Amino acid sequence: MQQNPIRKIVIVGGGTAGWMAAAPLAQRMGQRCEIVLVESPDIGTIGVGEATLPTIRFYNAALQLDHADFIKKTQASFKLGIEFKDWGHVGNRFFHGFGDFGPPLNGIQPHHYWLRLARTFDHMPALENWSMASIMARENKFTMPNDAQPGVTDAYSFGYHFDAGLYAAFLRDYAMARGARRVEGTITSVDQHPETGFVTAVRLADGRTLDGDLFIDCSGFRGLLIEGALKAGYDDWSEHLPCNSALAVPCARVEPLTPYTRSTAKGAGWLWRIPLQHRTGNGHVYSNAFTTDEKARQDLLDGLDGAALDEPRQLRFVTGKRKKSWVKNVVAIGLSAGFVEPLESTSISLIETAIGTLIEQFPDRDFRPELADEFNRIIGSRYESIRDFIVMHYKLTKRDDTEFWRYCANMTIPASLAHQIELFRETGRVAILDRDSFLLPSFVAMLVGLGVEPKRYDPFVDDVDMRQLHGHFAGLRDLIAQTVAKLPDHGAYLAKNAKAG
């Protein structure tokens, strides 16, 4: 029986991470534990990522948020996946959709059968033609999948594009309605216990002191508590992910309202395009060792498909993670815990993972170190699996048109990723090292899209009659195409069901 419960939680920093942490804690503990979030009006939030993975749906559902209300208040649109342009080689285009490529046959994943068919028949359509999400995105269509009775044409999921600032405000109202308290102020110093080193309080510029039992560090790249006070250390992954800069700018919305994020590879990085109801978010992630800020800015502005609504905002970062995200009585969540560039929209997902894992391993005031060890094991594994998935995008390039891409093609990669790539190249199999991160369909979409051609397929595929197999795949492709043709336009679906004011 827990005899020493947490009485007060202090969240340092607002923004997306702070309020995403505050909301579920207030939902669960707001009536029996004091929850205080302190944020400074002088310190801006990063807010680069406005696109999410489908896991955001589970976070929102756990809070019992009204779906239409959430979409309206955050200017959200739907996201079926990511379109990749000029990755692998200039002129390449493929889609990483949120869904599979059809049901398994005899327990074997469908891409193995597609590999056999592609070797047998000339002009075999691309694998993504069997992805419902990919075809919907290609046609700018959207409707909700039937999660209760999913069939071939419901075998997809979706995330969102939304205004991160509006989402933080939405969750702030939710958390404060359930007992969380917001304190406005700038932290100037941190008090620690002289013997244990535990954080006991934070001091504000106006002289106020906020004490607490558990401190959650959502202070962004600064890591005010986890690094500034507790010196957790940082694993620098720049060797594998050389991009260290970003420029972000909104532009006017244009038609059609696409239900996907777009990533376009450039000479020293890539551009993002994220369509919202009221505007389009754009950015350029790049390495300033391989290009200039001025050239990157021009590439960004040249890539806009609507009028710029502001001046591009400059960001610098070092890709990596804290050696430990939970030290003593401080848990780092969001950018204070680490940063993996937003190529696959993982930043908000990592916040979800961190707050969910904290709740699962929630301490009392004794702060047993075993809880921190388990939290750090889970979070470390998640960051590393996402790192490898992102590194794969760069490493598997045939581009040699710039020094940046030549570096990426020749750089060393983690042994874990090297194993995954070679396993697929040799056998068509995929090693999933973290089953709560990117799964088989995502790896297959990226590996095939980037041009990796497996030398073999599952030998049990040969037990199926070739003509029956071809007919089966043709029927699935036609069913998907016919279903998508009847679906509403994405923009029209939003206007009917959740149009923002």
Model description:
The structure is a single chain. Helices cover 34% and strands 19% of the residues. A hairpin with a 2-residue loop joins strand 19 and strand 20. It has 501 residues and is of the alpha+beta class. The chain has a seven-stranded mixed β-sheet. Strands 7-2-1-11-20-19 form a six-stranded mixed β-sheet. A three-stranded antiparallel β-sheet has the order 8-9-10, with no helix packed on it. The mean pLDDT is 95.
Task: Please outline what is shown here.
This protein is 34% helix and 19% strand.
Judging from the principal axes of the Cα atoms, what is the shape?
A: globular
Mean pLDDT: 95
Report the portion of residues in β strands: 15-25%
Structural class by secondary-structure content: alpha+beta
Distance between the termini: 50 Å
Percentage of residues in helical conformation: 25-40%
Helix count equals 14
Instruction: Please give the radius of gyration in angstroms.
Output: 23 Å
Low-confidence stretches: none
Number of strands: 21
Largest pleated sheet? 7 strands, mixed
